[in-house]
Write a structure and sequence with these properties.
The protein has about 70 residues and is α+β, with helices and mostly antiparallel strands. About 30% of the residues lie in helices and about 25% in strands. A four-stranded mixed β-sheet has the order 2-1-4-3, with helices on one face.
Length: about 70
């Protein structure tokens, strides 16, 4: 699972934000007893949304629209 931010048309990896998002994703997986990969796509906390264009079978990308300059 990869978490990225979209800022000024560029997709970036901000390590601190990605780490927070991974923790939130794990919490959601445990809380909702998610047990299939397809269900992970429903993660939508911290303004991240599943991006099917970047994702493939082995890599799920979640992108957050960042309105601030990085």
């Amino acid at each position: 699972i990869h978490f990225r931010q979209l800022s000024s048309g560029v997709i970036k990896n901000i390590a601190f934000n990605s780490k927070r998002a991974r923790g939130a994703a794990v919490e959601q997986i445990i809380r909702n007893k998610i047990d299939t990969l397809g269900e992970i796509k429903t993660f939508n906390e911290l303004d991240y949304k599943f991006n099917s264009e970047l994702s493939d079978e082995g890599n799920y990308y979640f992108v957050k629209q960042n309105n601030q300059n990085l």
